[in-house]
Each structure stands twice: as C-alpha cells, then as structure tokens.
Design goal:
Layout (H helix, E strand, L loop, with lengths): L3 H22 L13 H16 L25 H13 L3 H26 L2 H13 L1 H6 L6 H21 L2 H15 L5 H18 L9 H28 L3 H11 L7 H7 L1 H28 L7 H16 L1 H6 L7 H28 L10 H32 L15 H11 L8 E4 L6 H7 L3 E4 L14 E5 L5 H10 L3 E3 L2 E5 L8 E8 L3 H6 L6 E6 L1 H10 L15 H14 L2 H13 L6 E2 L5 E8 L5 E7 L10 E10 L13 E2 L16 E7 L6 E9 L15 E6 L1
Parallel strand pairs: 1-2, 1-3, 4-6
Antiparallel strand pairs: 3-5, 4-5, 6-7, 8-9, 9-10, 10-13, 11-12, 11-14, 14-15
Helix pairs in contact: 1-4, 1-5, 2-3, 2-4, 2-19, 3-4, 4-5, 4-7, 5-16, 5-17, 7-8, 8-10, 9-10, 9-14, 13-16, 13-17, 14-16, 16-17, 18-19, 22-23, 23-24
C-alpha cells in the first residue's frame, strides 16, 4: 500500500491535471462558430435548435421552413449526444457555448475516471500517471471540446469500466447501476461501442464463469445480472435503432453513408498508416505511440499469464479504436480526430508501464536488501516516488506538443495541416452571414454559391435553410423562399463577378456578397470589418485565435466596387483617407481623375508603410511591398501596382509554405507538406486597371517550426501567366 505522502502526491497530480484540462478546453468557450471541422459545432447547434423549435426527438442537420418529417432525421449515428445537447439548449438557450458544454464536461470527467480505473487495477501511482497522460496528449487537448462522437464514447467506455471495477470488488448493486449507465450511454453514442462491450463481455464470461479456477471466481448471481443486463441494453438499443431506421425508410441512406466511410479499406495497412504518419505523430507524438506499443505485450502477459482478467478493458478500448480507425478508411483519412478513442488506451498504457516499472524497482530493492547492511537500500516510499517522477517525466515531455496541438487546432478549425490544402478559419464569413441575416425577411431560404465553400457555420449564422448552387443568380419576380443569394468574390471568376454586378444590387461585406433577387438593380454598397485585437478576457473566453470584428459602412470600398464594375453614381468619399486601404483606393481615384501628382504622393505614403520587397513580373505588374501584421490572426498583405488586366480569367496570385525544421522541445518531425496558403484577390487580375494598386490579404495560420512562405501567379498558360522577372518564386515571409 502507498504511504500517505505518496497518496497526497498522486491526488495533487490528478487534481492539477483535471484543473489544467478544464482550463485548456474552456479556451474560447463563448466564441463564434467557424469553418473546417469546427463547422460541426454549427451542425450540432442546428440539430438542437430544430429539436427545441419543432418539438421533434430526431436530429435534423438543416434548418427547415416547415416541421421536419422523420425521413429527414440524421440516422448514421445513435442519438444520445443530440438528446443531451437538445436538453441543454432547451434549458440554456441558443448559444455557442451550449454546443461546447457537453464535450467539455465529459472530457473533464475523464482524468478522474482514468485515475479511478488505474487505482483499482494497479494502484494510486499508476492511476495518477493515467490521468496525467490523458491531459497532455495533443489530440485530447485539441478535440476535448469537440461535439463529435469520440469524446462521449470515451467517457462512456471509461464510466462502464470504472463502474464494473467497483462493482466486482464487493458486488454492490449501486456500482452495477453506474456501469450499466455507462453501457447505455456508450451504445447511444456510437456503434463502435459494441466492439468494446463485446470484447469485454466475451472475455469476462470465459474468465468468470468458464475458467474461474484459472482466473478468479465471481459472484455468479451478481455477475450474471450485470452481464445479462449489459447484453440486453446493447442488443435492444441497437435493434431499436435498426427497426426505426427501417420504419422511416432510411436504410439505404444509412448503408450508403457507411460504405462511403469505409471506401478504400482494401489498401494495405502499411500504406494507409504511412499516408497518415504526420497526423498520427502530431496528435499523439511518437513517444505516446511507442509506449502504447510497449504496453500491448505487457497487457497480454498480465491478462493471459498473470491472469489479470480485469485488464481486458484497456485491450477492449484498443480493439474498438483500431477497428474503427482501420476499417473506415475514408472517414479516418478526412477526419483527423477519428483517432481520439486511442487516447484512453495511451493513458492506461502509461499506467501499466508505471506499474511494471514499480514492480521491477521494488524487486530490485528487495534483492539489494538481501545483500546485508553494507548496501544502503532506499525506502519503499522513496522507490515509489522515484518511479512516479521518472515515468511521469514522459508525459511532461509531451506537454509542449500538446499545447501546440491545442493552439493549432483552434487556429485551423481543427484541420491542422489538412494535407497541404488551403485553410481558412471562416469566422469572418460567419460574422458577415450573421450581419446579413438582419437584412433578410424571415421564412426565406438562401442560395449559397459554391464560391462560399460553406459549411454549417454559415447555416448556423443565418438561422434559416440554405441550398447550394453553382449557377449565377437569376431574377425572381416576386417574393419567394429562395429570395437571397450569397457569394464570395474572392472565389468567383471575373466574368461571374461582372455579370452579377450588372444585374443585381450587391451588398458586400468585405469579399462576401448578399443579393436580394427581388430587389431592383442599384449600385453596389460596400461594408468593411472593423478589426481589433481581443482584450485578455475576450482572448480566453471568446476569440483567442481571431480578432474582434464589427461591420460598418465603408464609402471607400463602395467607390472601389462601383469603379471596378462601371457603376454610377460613384462620388468620392468625404474627408481625407487615413487607413492604408483608404490611401490605396484614394490613389486609384486620383489615377482615374488624372491627378498624377496626388497619385504619386499617395503611392509614396503607401510604400512608406510597407516592407520593401519589390519585384517585377513579366507583364509589367510590380509588387510594391508587403505588410505583415501580427496578432491573434496574423495577416500578410501584398500590394501590387497593376500594368493592366490579366489576359486569362483564372489568373490569381498564390502563396505556399514549407516547414524547414520543427520547433524546439518538440517530439514531432517537421510537417513535410507543401501547403497552400494564399487567399485569392477579391478583385481578380482579369479586372485590374493600369496604374491601380491592389492588395492581396491572406491569413497566416503558422505551422509549428520554421515556416517559409513564397508567392507566385497561377492560372492561364505558361505564355500568359505573369512570372517574376528573375525566374524565382518570391520569398515573402519566414516565421519561427
């Protein structure tokens, strides 16, 4: 038994781990819903909102103008998490923090549960190691507040395990009830819980009833009750879902979705894991993976040779996580968070390694004691604390990568490097959509153009049904359900922009455009985001990776839009230009007016605020300089002096980055992906005018390590694409 001091140290570790985890996961609790995987927050919020609004008990992922029918229910997963979220929204109202509350509460419960499991299986010190291991793992920090199925599933499996371990100690019914509550919750979270439960039930049946002399005798009556009730809960729950899905006629949809997620699983495991190597390393670190591999033979030895039948639970978790991760290849290739169910296995792996190290250390001390008084033998307490410190150092080594994983997840919408694809946080898109909602009539549906690259974050912000379209907007004679149209100028080609501006009244908030298809034509209105850094309070609770934005009318942007699209009236704004963007547009206005002296003076003012990074392109375009703005969401602005319009519609300026070396104190190798970074120009080069200055503004979501950013024009053909005169890509920025 550990001494009082050892117990106190273990308790302090568990309490500190749990508090740290709660603080880390609550970062951004009240923040807005963004894009990427974070769009799932919007999806879950819409489901709960529909449950409350329409009084339905099934989840529907889109807003509707009429009460949804059962055929619209989302049937690919059990509904337990949706019901809890719907109850929270009913009690607390429609807020983004409500969507995060359920996973945070369950995540914070995991370290104490792991401590309880580790203590019952191996002792207080291994239990404390398990709790510590869980809260430093990058994937648990990154996705511990994520309202998917992984966090509730882990919580349910741990609750089932802890409840059963307490139950089999004295066979008390109240602990049976705790374990059965975990079973009921797990089965209502995700189908893969049946793998965990099946492995545990099958093993415990053999060890407890068929081979009790080899393993350990059980209270047959109490064990039989628990086993039977667990089996009944699992089977009846799954059958109930199957029967209902068949009843509403959604079996084909369910099977098609499952087939989509397992697509490609015929590939060899080695090839699959090699393709995911960076994702695996950055979410767990090679250290955790190595310890998990080391622990597997230890678990098997203890289960089969030492006959520790209760240690089937960590192995059941491993089996469940492995089958899900390997079989549903397409799902795991898309969702970096699918490996989260491995996290409790990693935590329990460190615990069993700690238990093994403790046993070996005590055995060595006992052997030393036999040598007599000439050898100074450490006390049992000293040995225990020494092992705790030595093994506990391993998860501490992971903490820097864990903190980086937390920050990178928040800054990239949970996508990390997204295999080199372009990543935008899309908080600005959601903010613009929410502002536009105030200019729309109720009971209308919104057409979302493919240029928006939208997900549920926009639907959540609009609070109304949407429909995707890749077609240009058409005139709607009278009011109708599809009255409004949203598009993103940055991802539209020049002819699309020109056609839209010629037929409709554009309301642009930055690059995002709202059209009322019933409104008469009128010149464009431009609005801009006022952007500021968050206060310390806002940084923690609201926007730690994005600035605070508000929308205001912008007469300078209005002038620029009308000028580009040849619209009138287009008076110059009153008052002198102040901000850099206003100086840029005022310069262009001076060019239109033929005021060369004023244009030259304004150009000097602009260049004076830029870092000199001049470059000349083959079509005569000049890069005047760049401005890198640090903050919670750094931006890189590139200012171009146009020689005239580009000759091809699809010519754009792009930015890519490479990571040259990993950060200090990291266990993870540098990301080897060449990553797309650049935001397309809002006014495409095909519409540029000679002598005008244009800006390309890109968010910089820095990857860990030394990252180098380079720029170049894309599109067109080799003959028509502008190239830097010296033949090299522009080296724009280096971040460490």
């Amino acid at each position: 038994m550990p001494s009082g001091r050892v117990e106190r140290v273990a308790t302090i570790i568990v309490v500190a781990s749990t508090v740290w985890f709660a603080i880390a996961l609550s970062w951004g609790l009240f923040g807005p819903v963004g894009g990427g995987h974070w769009a799932i927050f919007g999806s879950r919020g819409i489901m709960a909102d529909n449950m409350v609004t329409w009084g339905i008990w099934g989840p529907v992922r889109e807003y509707t103008l009429e009460r949804p029918v059962p055929q619209q229910y989302y049937v690919h997963h059990p509904w337990g998490t949706y019901w809890v979220l719907g109850a929270f929204m009913k009690l607390l109202g429609r807020h983004t923090y409500v969507v995060r509350l359920e996973p945070i509460l369950m995540s914070v419960a995991c370290p104490p549960l792991l401590y309880g499991i580790g203590s019952l299986l191996w002792g207080k010190v291994p239990g404390a190691l398990a709790a510590l291991a869980y809260v430093v793992c990058p994937i648990t920090l990154a996705f511990g507040n994520f309202p998917g199925f992984e966090v509730p599933l882990v919580f349910g499996c741990l609750l089932t395990t802890w409840g059963y371990l307490r139950f089999q100690d004295r066979w008390q019914r109240r602990w049976m009830a705790v374990s059965l509550a975990g079973v009921l919750w797990s089965v209502n979270c995700d189908w893969e819980s049946c793998i965990f439960l099946g492995a545990a039930l099958g093993t415990l049946l053999v060890t407890g009833l068929f081979l009790p002399r080899w393993f350990a005798p059980v209270n047959a009556r109490r064990f039989g009750q628990w086993w039977s009730l667990t089996f009944i809960v699992m089977v009846v729950t799954v059958l109930a879902y199957v029967v209902y899905v068949k009843h509403i006629g959604n079996v084909d949809e369910f099977l098609n979705q499952e087939a989509k997620r397992e697509k490609g699983n015929e590939a060899s495991l080695g090839v699959v894991l090699a393709a995911r190597r960076y994702w695996i390393d950055v979410t767990f670190t090679p250290l955790a993976i190595a310890i998990g591999k080391l622990a597997l033979p230890i678990f098997l030895f203890r289960l089969l040779v030492l006959r520790r039948h209760l240690e089937i639970f960590p192995l059941a978790i491993l089996l469940m996580a492995t089958i899900e991760y390997v079989h549903f290849k397409n799902g795991a290739d898309v969702h970096i968070f699918w490996s989260l169910p491995f996290a409790p296995y990693w935590a329990l792996s460190l615990a069993v390694v700690g238990k093994t190290a403790l046993d070996l250390a005590r055995y060595a001390v006992a052997r030393l004691d036999l040598l007599g008084s000439h050898v100074r033998v450490p006390s049992r307490e000293a040995v225990t604390l020494g092992v705790l410190g030595a093994v506990g150092l391993l998860p501490i080594l992971m903490l820097p990568d864990g903190i980086r994983g937390l920050a990178q997840a928040r800054a990239t919408g949970g996508r990390f490097n997204d295999r080199g694809r372009r990543i935008f946080q899309d908080i600005d898109k959601a903010s613009a959509s929410e502002w536009m909602t105030g200019r729309m009539d109720p009971q209308t549906r919104v057409q979302i153009h493919t240029s928006m690259h939208t997900a549920w974050e926009v639907d959540w912000a609009l609070r109304r049904p949407t429909m995707g379209t890749d077609a240009a907007p058409t005139r709607l004679a009278t009011g109708g359900q599809d009255r409004y149209f949203l598009a993103d100028l940055a991802f539209m080609k020049a002819p699309e922009q020109v056609q839209m501006a010629a037929e409709f009244h554009l309301v642009a908030v930055g690059q995002f455009v709202l059209i009322d298809r019933t409104a008469p034509f009128g010149p464009a209105e431009g609005f801009a985001f006022d952007v500021r850094e968050p206060t310390a309070f806002e940084w923690y609770f609201v926007c730690g990776t994005d600035p605070v934005r508000s929308v205001r009318p912008d007469p300078w942007y209005t002038w620029e839009l009308r000028q580009e699209f040849g619209q009138s009236p287009n008076p110059l704004p009153d008052g002198p230009p102040r901000a850099l963007d206003e100086l840029r547009i005022a310069h262009n206005a001076a060019v239109v007016a033929g005021d060369e002296a004023r244009a030259a003076d304004l150009k000097r003012q602009i260049v004076g605020q830029l870092e000199a990074d001049n470059a000349t392109f083959t079509d005569g375009t000049l890069l005047l300089g760049e401005r890198f703005t640090r903050g919670v969401a750094p931006t890189l602005d590139l200012y171009f002096l146009a020689a005239g319009p580009a000759v091809a519609d699809d010519i754009q300026f792009d930015i890519k980055s490479v990571v040259e070396r990993p950060p200090l104190l990291s266990l993870v190798e540098a990301d080897d992906k060449v990553k797309a970074v650049g935001m397309p120009l809002v006014i495409p080069p095909r519409l540029w005018r000679a002598g005008f200055i244009y800006v390309d503004r890109t968010e910089i979501r820095h990857r860990p390590g030394r990252e180098v950013y380079s720029g170049f024009f894309t599109g067109g053909s080799d003959q028509t694409r502008p190239k830097e005169v010296d033949g090299n890509d522009l080296r724009l920025l280096t971040l460490r």
